[in-house]
Design goal:
The chain is an alpha+beta fold. It has helices at 65-72, 132-142, 152-155, 183-186, 200-203, 209-212, 258-267, 277-286, 342-357, 361-367, 399-408, 431-441, 455-463, 502-513, 517-534; strands at residues 4-7, 42-47, 99-105, 110-115, 159-166, 169-174, 220-226, 230-235, 249-254, 272-274, 291-294, 299-305, 308-309, 415-420, 446-451, 470-474, 498-499, 537-543, 546-549, 553-555, 573-574. The strands form seven sheets. A five-stranded antiparallel sheet has the order 1-3-4-6-5, covered by helices on one side. Strands 2-9-8-7 form a four-stranded mixed sheet, with no helix packed on it. Strand 5 and strand 6 (169-174) form a beta hairpin.
């Protein structure tokens, strides 16, 4: 008989954050704190970037953090929505998303969602009630040809098509055998950058009205949007999930530079800001009554050695697989190995090991992250204190050993290279840490010129597999058994500048459907053995996204979504 599962979706269990990250738990308000009133006040939040007005799902990219804000700032809603959970775990899926429940029919390759009938659009044109046709349009548009959506290309690997069987029922037909085990995170508020649900009624009006006109169903409605300046939003009184103690107004202002954020916090120009961890403690100490709020999972700061595209075919992505070798980014650089040349592969491996060995991880933790964090060496969520950690994965800090490897690789005097460090992707990357790494490389004769291209401008080279330089990003840790390597195998979307050969990359695809926990873990351990041997990326230290909150804010319970961005303004209580 058909296997069916009917339930509220549950997020994967999360591993514990590293011990050092625990220091970032929110501080308690002082005993003399003024009790919060029931609602009111203006909340002002600092954000790195306020991007252009662009509200069509296929043009909302992950580069502009304001794109995430459309959902995370309470302006759009998700198909699935997880309950609140204390840091650093993700909550279990509840029934307050646009879908109140779902039925997964594995043999039939379908998921059927029941859409609530009490969610309303916050607009005049294209307004009314959210229905299944809006859900179908939003996902279909996000996965359309040429989409710039953060999630769209990835969804196409396991979503075949969508249809609305009636106003309250949306059905997705799945690609047989491709449903990932973490599918709920990809379409809910866990992962960041998930599909915004928009009004099909607005799109049906034609022209570019749906591109430039805001029409969301969240607890906040945009009243003003000025690119590179600020977004102003007002609460929606009758929103189906809004709390009664909402603020009167939300202002998100663009402030990218750390010192400017600190000054704005100290003077009260903003109430919340995410700062580099080096400044978090001192700033909190300087503002009487302020407190700290961790948001999301810790983010290991990772150097990806872009250009090592070793996959021959688009295995796991196309059926049948297509020839993809060689990729544009497979260039002749010291850190890039050519799989058609054994000597090139070994020399490049030694270069990557030398670059990783010359990174002083303890110094980064102490001097950049103010002791909040810890050294990391893996891509697969196995921290050094985990019982399954293999000591051979550890990369010792050894400048002289690194120089010896460079000599063996034929570059005894070092070399010059560009090193991309995005200045605006600070929810996942601390630029200061990677600038410090570039300085450390000088000790072994490697001159790394920092490229400060904004993320949205550089991201197309990741999608196109044309990037051929090392770059700074994060490793998104979930649990030890989760499918790993989604961004280092052939897919249709974002890539970390690496494509594994099929024999190892297939472990990723195997874990998307593997039901045995121990086998999933072993698959990831095998993948890590390979990644560590070839040192295709250098995981360095953890970053726990932490927000500094002024004393005017009495309470905030943000969802622990993937990238630690500001979210859930409807949970904020201001003091009188």
């Amino acid at each position: 008989s058909d296997e069916e599962e009917t339930a509220a979706p549950a997020a994967p269990a999360a591993t514990k954050a590293p011990a050092a990250a625990a220091k970032a738990e929110p501080t308690k308000a002082p005993p003399t704190a003024v009790p919060p009133k029931e609602g009111g006040g203006t909340l002002i939040v600092a954000n790195d970037l306020i991007g252009p007005r662009a509200f069509r799902p296929s043009v909302i990219t992950g580069g502009a953090h304001s794109a995430f804000g459309l959902q995370d700032w309470g302006m759009y809603d998700f198909l699935l929505r997880a309950d609140y959970s204390a840091p650093p775990t993700f909550g279990e899926g509840g029934s307050d998303g646009l879908a109140t429940d779902w039925t997964l029919d594995r043999p039939g390759n379908k998921i059927t969602f029941t859409i609530r009938d009490d969610a309303k659009w916050n607009c005049d044109e294209g307004g009314g009630t959210v229905d299944a046709h809006d859900i179908v349009y939003s996902f279909t548009e996000s996965m359309s040809e040429g989409t710039k959506s953060t999630r769209g290309p990835g969804l196409k690997t396991w979503m075949e098509s969508w249809e609305a069987t009636d106003d309250n029922t949306a059905v997705v037909t799945l690609v047989p055998g491709k449903l990932p085990s973490d599918w709920m995170m990809a379409i809910g508020n866990h992962g960041g950058g998930s599909i915004p649900i928009v009004s099909k009624k607005l799109a049906d009006l034609g022209g570019d009205k749906d591109l430039t006109t805001f029409c969301g169903s969240g607890p906040f409605h945009i009243t003003s949007w000025t690119s590179e300046e600020e977004v102003i939003a007002a609460p929606v009184p009758d929103n189906y999930r809004a709390k009664p103690n909402m603020i009167d107004e939300l202002r998100v202002v663009q402030i990218a530079e750390a010192n400017a954020k600190i000054a704005a916090l100290k003077t009260g120009e903003v109430h919340m800001a995410n700062l580099p961890l080096k400044f978090t403690g001192p700033t909190n100490d300087a503002i009487d009554g302020s407190w700290l709020q961790p948001v999301g999972k810790y983010q290991p700061q990772t150097v990806y050695f872009g250009g090592n595209f070793w996959a021959r075919t688009s295995y796991g992505f196309d059926d049948p697989p297509k020839e993809i070798f060689p990729r544009e980014g497979l260039k002749d650089h010291p850190w890039i190995g050519n799989p058609d040349d054994d000597e090139s592969m070994e020399n490049a491996r030694k270069v990557r090991w030398a670059l990783s060995m010359s990174i002083d991880r303890e110094s980064l933790t102490r001097n950049v992250f103010n002791g909040l964090g810890g050294s990391t060496y893996t891509y697969t969520d196995v921290m050094p204190d985990h019982e399954r950690f293999n000591p051979e994965w550890k990369v010792e800090y050894d400048v002289e050993g690194a120089k010896k490897l460079l000599a063996e690789a034929g570059v005894p005097d070092g070399f010059s290279m560009d090193f991309w460090v995005s200045p605006d992707n600070t929810a996942a990357v601390d630029p200061e840490a990677f600038e410090a790494i570039a300085q450390m490389w000088q000790d072994i004769g490697v001159n790394a010129s920092i490229e400060k291209t904004v993320y949205a401008a550089r991201r197309p080279t990741l999608v196109a597999r044309s990037i051929d330089i090392p770059f700074a990003h994060h490793t998104f840790f979930l649990t030890i058994d989760q499918p790993k390597g989604g961004s280092i195998v052939p897919t249709g979307g974002f890539n970390h500048g690496i494509e594994l050969p099929e024999e190892i990359g297939q472990l990723r695809y195997a874990n998307e459907t593997e039901t045995d926990l121990e086998q999933r873990i072993q698959n990831n351990l095998d993948m890590q053995d390979y990644l560590s041997h070839w040192q295709l990326m250098a995981s360095t230290v953890t970053l726990q996204p932490t927000w500094t909150i002024r004393p005017e804010v009495a309470e905030w319970t943000p969802h622990q979504q993937a990238w630690g961005m500001f979210n859930s303004p409807e949970t904020v209580k201001m003091k009188k």
